[in-house]
Amino acid sequence: MREETEKMKETPKPKRHSVVSNIIYAFKPVVQRNPSFLPGFLFEIFLKVAVPILGSYASARVVAVSSGRQPVLTVILSIGTIFLIYGLVNGLSSFFNQMNQMRYMEGRLAVFFPRAMQKWLSLSLSRMEDHAVRKKVEAAVEATENNDVGFEDLMRDTIVFAADALGLLVYIGFFGFLDIRLMLLIILVGLATAFLSLVTEQYYRKAMKRYFELYGQKAYLDRTAANIVAGKDIRVFDLSPYLSKKFDKVTKDMTHARGMYLFVRFLCSDAAGVILAALRDLVCYLYLIGRMQAGMSVESFVFYLGLISGFAAWFTELGGCYAEFRIDSDMVDSYRDYQELKADMADAGKVPEEGFEKISIEFDHVSFAYPGMEEKKVLDDVSFSVSAGEKIALVGINGAGKSTLVKLMSGLYLPTSGAVRINGIDTKDMNRRELMAHEAAIFQQPYLTDYSIGENVTFSETYEEKKVLDVLKQAGLSEKAASLPDGIHTCLGKHVDEAGISLSGGEAQKLLLARALYRNPSLVLLDEPTAALDALAETAVYETYSENMKGRTAVFISHRLASTKFCDRILLLSGGRIAEEGTHEELMQKNGEYAALFNVQAKYYQEAAEEVRA
Fold it and tell me: What is d(CA 261, CA 275) in angstroms, rounded to the nearest whole number?
């Protein structure tokens, strides 16, 4: 319980803004981006009010014209003119409504969704991996990812609410000439309907929160079932019954959560609303019938009958809008809370006077811990330096902090304490995007797209084919590319092109090397990219890297110590600290932890070789 309380303190709820504040927040950038949107919004409000009033008036005039003693042609022309005007106004209202629907969508997709993505890209990797930050991201995406909730629904409901409010004012003016008691009755029924909508909205919050949690689980199961990599384990271990059972449970729980909400909505809003509306209409009809018996004209009867229905609709819709405002405004609050996260990957920052053509690295008493886990340091008071053009190897058991150290060098992470300096500048003050433009990092799981080999090397649709062929040759993949019918235009995977191919683990590593060479980096970071390869293949890949990385600062992580012999220096990490440092020969002479690990691995390979010979 105490731990949960501490977590709540660490992740405070989003700041609540008023609905009006969130409406301004939603509309302001959309209108600023395209000022012509504002007249369209105003026209929709005006026409939304005018159409039902004009409809009631048209019906009344038709009754009046039809009951009068006028020539048939005159009656036809009069009725035709009335409905022509009504049709034109109604058509304009529909036109502006459809146009504004597109404007809401444009605002969501062109303004708010890109801002969410820009904020995401402005955060360092360690911030992105923080659970509290990821929850903020999910809430922001939910407010911008579809047109049924969030920003788009808030803008849509704002127009509806404004039209309803204006309509009520106009209708009150009409009813003031009829009977104030009738107006009060309709207002009371409208308030009751609005109250029921709020009850439904409160239940919606609870039910749909659970529904969306379950939806996330369902999406995960969908991705798992369709994942080609997971497909091997699913079939070998016959996980189909297991996953199917999980899927069935999630879908049943989703159905139950949504079903309970729909049931409550039916009782509180739909059924109760219909009963209240029926009682309201009965009283209004009896009242108007009494007035007609007292001398009210048929034309006035029809007109006011239409107004009563319209007035009731405005009031009921206002209550529904208010409930929707509460839901959508909460989502916009979450989005605004996410946008207030401090960016730590901005383009601004210092760049060394000599630039990044050569890169040196210094760790000055660096410690690192993940957010919310400050008491458990991944790195603890680490200090060392790497000269420009030097090749170093990072070794150690799993969890020693090797990958974290590489991410700190690259600028993906910032230290919790101490300083990482690139060419003398602290990465906290550095323009890290500029730094990353001069580095190439290759991680354990290679990132390959389903597009062409050329695009995978360059990450661009336009590139120098000769340069791509040159780096493929340096990486040892040119023969493979030449053997393909479409050469470097061959796609990797079949999502884009059914004729796409798959690369072996070694071929994928060669492509990653070609990608690094194409970029011509000053700093190369290799975080166990060959973990899936056998020892001989790994050694061959690292030798290729070593040959092609001459003159560049390079950092290699390998779980096989024999692959680090070509490095200028080796750092052994243990328990978040540098336990040993030196060349391979120096560390072997020390006969310490590095030598012990190396001898264990050497013994294993010797035994394996003897078994093969036997």
Answer: 20
Question: How far is 168 from 45, CA to CA, in rounded Å?
Answer: 12
Per-residue pLDDT at 608 exceeds 70: no
**Cα gap 544→611, rounded to integer Å:** 29
CB atoms within 10 A of CB 536: 9
Contact 89, 47 (CB under 8 A): yes
User: Residue 365 has which token pair?
Assistant: 């008493």
pLDDT of residue 268: 62
Q: At what angle do helices 19-33 and 150-175 cross, to 10 degrees?
A: 110
User: Which of 90-94, 345-349, 397-401 is predicted with the least confidence, judged by mean pLDDT?
Assistant: 345-349
Lowest mean pLDDT of 255-259, 462-466, 472-476, 585-589, name the range: 255-259
Cβ-contact 144, 104 below 8 angstroms: no
- Rounded (5°) CA angle 606-610-613: 140
* DSSP string for residues in 318-352: HHHHHHHHHHHHHHHHHHHHHHTSPPSS-S-SB--
Sequence-ordered list of residues with C-beta below 8 angstroms from that of 93, at least 6 positions apart, any chain: 44, 47, 48, 50, 51
Alpha-carbon distance values, 436 to 116, 122, 590 (Å): 22, 13, 37
pLDDT at 62: 73
Least confident of 75-84, 86-95, 161-170, 439-448: 75-84
Q: If you count them, how many residues does the chain have?
A: 614
Q: What is the pTM of this model?
A: 0.63
> How many CB atoms lie under 10 A from the CB of residue 501?
16
Rounded to whole angstroms, how far apart are CA atoms 580 and 134? 37
> pLDDT band at residue 469, thresholds of 50, 70 and 90?
very high
Which DSSP string corresponds to 472-505?
HHHHT-HHHHHTSTTGGG-BBSSSS-TT-B---H
**Residue closest to 457 by CA, chosen among 387, 372, 518:** 518
Neighbour count for residue 211 (Cβ, 10 Å): 19
User: Which tokens sit at 446?
Assistant: 């290679």
DSSP string, 229-245: HHHHHHHHTT-HHHHHH
Mean per-residue pLDDT for 301-330? 72
Label each residue of 538-603 as H, E or C.
HHHHHHHHHHHCCCCEEEEECCCHHHHCCCCEEEEEECCEEEEEECHHHHHHHCCHHHHHHHHHHH
> Mean pLDDT lowest for which of 179-193, 295-309, 359-373, 436-450?
179-193
Q: Given this model, what pLDDT does residue 271 score?
A: 64
For the chain, the first-to-last Cα distance in angstroms comes to: 61
Other C-beta atoms closer than 10 Å to the C-beta of 232 total 10
| β 425-426/417-422 pair status | antiparallel
3-state secondary structure of 389: coil
CA dihedral over 210, 216, 218, 221, signed as positive or negative: negative
Sorting pLDDT into bands at 50, 70 and 90, what band is 68?
A: low
Beta bridge partners of 386: 361
Give the lowest-confidence range in 5-9, 232-236, 519-523: 5-9
CA 556 to chain CA centroid, Å, is 33
Q: Which of 495, 595, 474 is nearest to 546 (CA)?
A: 474
3-state DSSP call for residue 381?
Answer: strand
Assigned token pair, 451: 């597009």
Spatial distance between the Cα atoms of 371 and 127, rounded to a whole number of angstroms: 8
